[in-house]
From TrEMBL:
<dbReference type="InterPro" id="IPR012340">
    <property type="entry name" value="NA-bd_OB-fold"/>
</dbReference>
<dbReference type="InterPro" id="IPR050082">
    <property type="entry name" value="RNA_methyltr_RlmE"/>
</dbReference>
<keyword id="KW-0489">Methyltransferase</keyword>
<feature type="binding site">
    <location>
        <position position="52"/>
    </location>
    <ligand>
        <name>S-adenosyl-L-methionine</name>
    </ligand>
</feature>
<dbReference type="InterPro" id="IPR002792">
    <property type="entry name" value="TRAM_dom"/>
</dbReference>
<feature type="binding site">
    <location>
        <position position="50"/>
    </location>
    <ligand>
        <name>S-adenosyl-L-methionine</name>
    </ligand>
</feature>
<dbReference type="InterPro" id="IPR029063">
    <property type="entry name" value="SAM-dependent_MTases_sf"/>
</dbReference>
<feature type="binding site">
    <location>
        <position position="68"/>
    </location>
    <ligand>
        <name>S-adenosyl-L-methionine</name>
    </ligand>
</feature>
<feature type="domain" description="TRAM">
    <location>
        <begin position="196"/>
        <end position="254"/>
    </location>
</feature>
<keyword id="KW-0698">rRNA processing</keyword>
<dbReference type="InterPro" id="IPR002877">
    <property type="entry name" value="RNA_MeTrfase_FtsJ_dom"/>
</dbReference>
<dbReference type="GO" id="GO:0005737">
    <property type="term" value="C:cytoplasm"/>
</dbReference>
<feature type="binding site">
    <location>
        <position position="84"/>
    </location>
    <ligand>
        <name>S-adenosyl-L-methionine</name>
    </ligand>
</feature>
<keyword id="KW-0963">Cytoplasm</keyword>
<feature type="binding site">
    <location>
        <position position="109"/>
    </location>
    <ligand>
        <name>S-adenosyl-L-methionine</name>
    </ligand>
</feature>
<comment type="similarity">
    <text>Belongs to the class I-like SAM-binding methyltransferase superfamily. RNA methyltransferase RlmE family.</text>
</comment>
<dbReference type="InterPro" id="IPR015507">
    <property type="entry name" value="rRNA-MeTfrase_E"/>
</dbReference>
């Protein structure tokens, strides 16, 4: 029996009027991680044929924009762009539709054309998801959310770390609607960071203030960084340990000679 004949989600999508079985993956991701909320502006990258656009519209009810190299058949209440997400022209078109403030959520269920060579297909997947992340970084509002499909493999951890470096909360998640034999998973990033520091960055600073908890507090490009185990007047090299939307934490790496 053909795979589609045995596929519960395939027939459920047919019965419920969704363009693809992938619709249920987004429903399940959102149920788990609450990525899309009512009224959110959502941009779907690599959106054809439109299954995730239909779900995004249902979950949000707000402005929904789909982008793909292929033309997307019309969906009521959804705007579409035929364009390349790596192109500045496409980025400008997205902003024309969502407004200068940007999008609340960027989603991407795109997959590369598969060759059957696993190493090559994994590399193509990472390249595509990296392009989606770079696009998301340009169009997301501060605090916005991101979901992208990625194939697991030896480059997956590096990609996950890159997402983690740009969002307060990062998880990988495989929804039940993913086929059991598939190597796909989804990376979820919540609360997009626009801070001038990132985890692992190092700076030489002088402690000139203590916070209410007794930790040192320094400003880096106007952004507050808290440092443990220091006193006012200490000159130290610090390493950023964790970044939140409005402040960061750092550890002392070494003392700095005056």
């Amino acid at each position: 029996m053909a795979r589609d004949r045995r596929d519960t989600y395939y027939w459920r999508a047919k019965d419920e009027g969704f363009r693809s079985r992938a619709a249920y993956k987004l429903f399940q991701i959102n149920e788990k991680h609450n990525v899309i909320k009512r009224g959110d502006t959502v941009v779907d990258l690599g959106a054809a044929p439109g299954g995730w656009l239909e779900v995004a519209k249902k979950l949000s009810g707000g402005r929904i924009v789909g982008v793909d190299l292929k033309k997307i058949s019309p969906i009521e209440g959804v705007e579409t762009i035929k364009g390349d997400i790596t192109s500045d022209k496409t980025i400008a078109q997205i902003f024309d539709m969502v407004g200068k403030a940007g999008a609340d959520v960027v989603i991407c269920d795109a997959a590369p054309n598969l060759s059957g060579n696993w190493s090559l297909d994994h590399a193509r997947s990472i390249d595509l998801t990296t392009s989606a992340l770079e696009c998301a970084k340009k169009i997301l509002k501060p605090g916005g959310n991101f979901v992208v499909k990625v194939f697991q493999g030896d480059m997956f951890k590096d990609f996950l770390d890159e997402v983690r470096n740009n969002f307060t909360f990062t998880r990988s998640y495989s929804p039940q609607a993913s086929r059991s034999q598939s190597a796909e998973t989804y990376v979820v990033g919540k609360k997009f960071l626009t801070a001038p520091v990132r985890r692992g960055d190092e700076f030489d600073v002088e402690i000139d203030e203590l916070g209410s908890s007794g930790d040192g507090a320094v400003l880096i490009e106007g952004f507050v960084v808290f440092v443990k185990n220091v006193e006012i007047g200490d000159r130290v090299r610090i390493k950023i340990k964790d970044v939140k939307p409005n402040f960061a934490f750092a550890d002392v790496v070494s003392k700095v000679d005056s």
